[in-house]
């Protein structure tokens, strides 16, 4: 990631399916950027109005942001909670962009699995970091906090400090959900920091 992140415009796209908390993830990142003193604009796009329908949003951050939406080839980071949705949005990444994609594959009939079909080759996608958020949240019995696991992964790359993230999460999340969400946020942060392909966070 460019070291000028906090002064030049940065764009993040969250994508997944209905019921995964995509829009809440966008709200948290917007709150983080605002607490860091940046201008923020957020856009939301919903697909089919049902569970497992496509949902995505963009969060744009800079000293001044003029538009809430950017087109293909302009996103710095793509965060996807489902593999097929992530692959559909890859054209939005710029040439130096990074995708954080959770290993969850949902078939058209709604059947989900934590691994893609055998013929799928992750190695073809050199700009993607594949993360085991589904498995981690399942093992911790916190499956509803998958969006916070992926936010934690994103926090390992973006140059906002931990206290800013925590304050933003506390400002958006109801107190009774905080312990689980913060636990999975920390797990996601640890996972991406240990990932060998993770871009180094700017100082």
From TrEMBL:
<dbReference type="InterPro" id="IPR019752">
    <property type="entry name" value="Pyrv/ketoisovalerate_OxRed_cat"/>
</dbReference>
<keyword id="KW-0670">Pyruvate</keyword>
<feature type="domain" description="Pyruvate/ketoisovalerate oxidoreductase catalytic">
    <location>
        <begin position="18"/>
        <end position="189"/>
    </location>
</feature>
<dbReference type="GO" id="GO:0016903">
    <property type="term" value="F:oxidoreductase activity, acting on the aldehyde or oxo group of donors"/>
</dbReference>
<keyword id="KW-0560">Oxidoreductase</keyword>
<dbReference type="Pfam" id="PF01558">
    <property type="entry name" value="POR"/>
</dbReference>
<dbReference type="InterPro" id="IPR052198">
    <property type="entry name" value="IorB_Oxidoreductase"/>
</dbReference>
<dbReference type="InterPro" id="IPR002869">
    <property type="entry name" value="Pyrv_flavodox_OxRed_cen"/>
</dbReference>
<protein>
    <submittedName>
        <fullName>Indolepyruvate oxidoreductase subunit beta</fullName>
    </submittedName>
</protein>
């Amino acid at each position: 990631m460019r070291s000028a992140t906090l002064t030049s415009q940065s764009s993040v796209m969250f994508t997944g399916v209905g019921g995964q908390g995509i829009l809440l993830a966008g709200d948290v990142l917007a709150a983080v950027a605002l607490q860091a003193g940046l201008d923020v604009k957020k856009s939301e796009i919903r697909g089919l109005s049902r569970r497992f329908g496509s949902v995505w949003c963009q969060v744009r951050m800079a000293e001044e942001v003029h538009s809430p939406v950017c087109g293909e080839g302009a996103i710095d980071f793509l965060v996807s909670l489902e593999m097929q949705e992530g692959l559909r949005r890859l054209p939005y990444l710029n040439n130096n962009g990074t995708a954080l994609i959770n290993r969850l594959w949902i078939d058209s009939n709604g059947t989900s699995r934590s691994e893609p079909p055998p013929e799928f080759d992750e190695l073809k996608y050199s700009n993607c970091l594949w993360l085991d958020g589904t498995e981690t949240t399942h093992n911790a019995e916190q499956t509803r906090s998958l969006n916070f696991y992926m936010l934690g992964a994103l926090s390992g790359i973006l140059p906002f400090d931990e206290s800013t993230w925590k304050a933003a999460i506390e400002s958006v999340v109801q107190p009774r959900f905080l312990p689980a969400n913060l636990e999975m946020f920390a797990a996601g942060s640890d996972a991406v920091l240990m990932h060998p392909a993770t871009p180094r966070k700017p100082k």
